[in-house]
Amino acid sequence: MKHFGISVLLMGAALPSVASFGALGTSGLTRPALLIGKSTRDSAKLSNLYLSTPSEGDDESTSKPTDVVEEKSSLLPNVDLSNLNIDLSSVNLDFSNILENTDAIQANVFDGELGQRGEQYVFAQVLLVLFVLIGGIPILGDPLASVLGPSLLLTGLGVAVVGVNEMGGSLSPWPVPPSNESNKKLIKTGLFSKVRHPIYSGLLCFSAGLSISTDSANRLLLTAILLYVLDVKSDYEEKKLMEVFPDYAEYQKEVPGKFFPSEITSKLPWIDSD
Q1: Rama region for 136: left / alpha / beta (φ>0; ψ in -120 to 50; rest)
Q2: CB 265 within 8 A of CB 6
Q3: Contacts of residue 2, Cβ cutoff 8 Å, sequence gap at least 6
Q4: SS3 for 119-180, per residue?
Q5: Cα separation, 153 vs 212, whole angstroms
Q6: Are 232 and 178 in contact (CB under 8 A)?
């Protein structure tokens, strides 16, 4: 999908949001690990209780079988551990295939012409993973959230409002053009001379700005989903517009940018200019 790259751009621009979300691993995200650890300890405790048998000299009252049953019920209610069997024999931790080919791997690293091997993608990949691990972008993290976020939010809001105003009587919540002949008008001026769907552009910028401003990974994910939905909706909408306006195909050629100006998207390496 042509606009999938813009979704990646939004995710990259709001990296501090995602990174800060990942940084919660010291609090909220460690809880499952703690619960797993507790469950393991409880299972071991139960195993000891069941496997230990009283010796001949022990008093039967000291074994307290009732307590064992009660403790099992309190720790893991309705869980039958009698058939628990974890087989780790299929796990292959043999790294001989890597160790035996270190020379070939080293040759691959130095293979090719410098600057022509896609180094920029590897650099971006490593850098982003590093930022995720440390929980933010050094130096730029806070300014990025405090400046870029509100800027996108206000810009998106303004673009959406202007786009609604420019639609005038042609404005409709439905992707199908209105049947009223007096309201059938193809808008090509104003923001519509830069992008074909400026209202959607405003919604996306507003959503991305709010996600960054509030450090919300959930909002950022929803913004990416919103981009996909609007992309599919606009494709359907444009098919209907072509049925009503014969010159819409020419308008698409004049304004190639669907949500964002082509002058911007054409500079992105992952966007197909066609």
Answers
A1: left
A2: yes
A3: 231, 258, 271, 272
A4: HHHHHHHHHHHHHHHHCCCCCCHHHHHHHHHHHHHHHHHHHHHHHHHHHHHHCCCCCCCCCC
A5: 9
A6: no
Helices (H) and strands (E) in the chain, counts: 14, 0
Structure tokens, 259: 């949500």
Question: Cβ distance 19 to 132 under 8 Å?
Answer: yes
Orientation angle between helical segments 4-13 and 15-23, nearest 10 degrees: 60
Residuewise pLDDT in 10s, the chain (274 residues): 445 445 444 444 444 444 444 434 333 443 444 444 444 445 444 444 444 445 444 454 444 444 444 444 455 556 566 666 666 666 666 778 778 888 888 888 888 888 888 888 888 888 888 877 876 666 556 776 788 889 999 999 999 999 999 988 888 888 888 887 766 788 999 999 999 999 999 999 999 999 988 888 899 899 999 999 999 999 999 999 999 898 999 999 999 999 999 888 777 665 554 4
Q: What is the largest CA-CA distance in the chain?
A: 101
Place of tokens 């039958």: 80
CA dist 173 → 170, 180, 188, 191 (Å): 10, 15, 19, 18
Strand residue runs (E) in 18-94? none
DSSP string, 196-257: S-HHHHHHHHHHHHHHHHTT-HHHHHHHHHHHHHHHHHHHHHHHHHHHH-TTHHHHHHH---
DSSP element (H, E) containing 16: helix 15-23
Angle at 93 between CA 130 and CA 132, to 5 degrees: 10
